[in-house]
Amino acid sequence: MYSTRWLLYTEQAPSAWLNFALCGLVGIITAYAFVWITQYYTDYKYEPVKTLALASSTGHGTNIIAGVALGLESTGLPVLVISVAIVSAYWLGQSSGLVDESGNPTGGLFGTAVATMGMLSTAAYVLTMDMFGPIADNAGGIVEMSQQPESVREITDLLDAVGNTTKATTKGFAIGSAALASFLLFSAYMDEVSSFARVPFEQVDIAVPEIFVGGLLGSMLIFLFSAWACSAVGRTAQEVVNEVRRQFIERPGIMYYKEKPDYSRCVAIVASASLKEMIKPGLLAIISPIVVGFIFRILGNITDQPLLGAKVVASMLMFATVAGILMALFLNTAGGAWDNAKKYIETGALGGKGSDCHKAAITGDTDEYDDEIV
């Protein structure tokens, strides 16, 4: 509050600093809301994950169906929170009293920017939580490989379950902050186009067929990108599994701790694939707007629509952002929920480790690679 008063006070609008302080508070509250929502959907203390674990008791298929349903449902609350945050921050900025030379309010976008920075102010804490997940996961692996007592493994399993929740929470936080920032970037894009073309560019009319098609292409881009990313992860997983099987066959002593596995080979496969397999999805995201803009610019010149290319790209970016936010929320939450449903069963619920319910939950946890795509 005091820093906002010191940095943002202006005689033109003496109370504007208070509005912007409230915008920052909106961002902080949004960050907390995302943490709570993600925890609710991924922590096995709450009903959604318990319901997912119960679905595993009737087989692998019902586990997958329940996980997909949970992921789809989990998009609702975050979108409502983002919507309230954007509208609130924009309204607080607009009502701050800042105006341009023509007397029009100018603080709306800046208010949204302050809300975004308010949300990002918790980034240090979020990064700490993000690091906890892999540390706890690898600690469990070390305990397993070093043949520690079962009591030690039970402790690391609990930590791993917490780590799954914190990983999902931090990714949800990143999605939320990106959603707030995307509104600013979209407005900045329109301002840049207007400045470069020296033609007013204040709205994107999706009732125009070409612009609507741009939106369809943007939405499709998210699903195509996700499909290619899933395929990339799947191919890499197959390579790793085949390598592990090869080592088990050639070195049977590994299973009895008499021979040491070649860990470096598996690490090399994953490291190489993480760079090579993502070239195609990366190029898709970079090249698609350029190609679409170029094609529709030519079409616009032919049909006497000077900014058609820029408007189609704007529609493409708008729809891609919306679809991307929803897809990311779905994949992130479903992955964490599947993992913790398995962990919940491993605590002794619904038959515990080795039961048919546990085997079905492992299938869901295997599908958790969609969480890594986010």
Radius of gyration: 25 Å
Major β-sheet annotation: none
Structural class: mainly alpha
Supply the number of structural domains. 1
Mean pLDDT: 85
Please tally the β strands and state the result: 0
Order of helices and strands: HHHHHHHHHHHHHH
Q: Which term fits the overall shape?
A: globular
Give the termini separation.
35 Å
Flag low-confidence runs: 368-374
Strand content: under 5%
Percent helix, as a range, is over 70%
| Secondary structure tally, helices | 14
Describe the structure.
It is found in: Endomembrane system. InterPro entries: PPase-energised_H-pump (IPR004131). This is H(+)-exporting diphosphatase. The chain has helices at residues 2-8, 16-42, 47-55, 60-73, 76-94, 108-120, 123-145, 150-197, 209-250, 263-276, 279-302, 308-346, 356-366, 369-373. The protein is an all-alpha fold and 374 residues long. Helix content is 79%, strand content 0%. Helix 8 (150-197) runs antiparallel to helix 12. The chain has 14 helices and no strands. The protein has one domain (2-373).
Helix-strand layout with pairing:
Blueprint: H1 2-8, H2 16-42, H3 47-55, H4 60-73, H5 76-94, H6 108-120, H7 123-145, H8 150-197, H9 209-250, H10 263-276, H11 279-302, H12 308-346, H13 356-366, H14 369-373
Helix pairs in contact: 1-2, 2-5, 2-6, 2-8, 3-4, 3-12, 4-12, 4-13, 5-6, 5-8, 6-8, 7-8, 8-12, 9-10, 9-11, 9-12, 11-12, 12-13
Question: What is the gist of this entry?
Answer:
By secondary structure, the chain is an all-alpha fold.
Features:
374 residues; mainly alpha; globular; disordered C terminus; PPase-energised_H-pump; ion transport; diphosphate hydrolysis-driven proton transmembrane transporter activity; translocase; transport
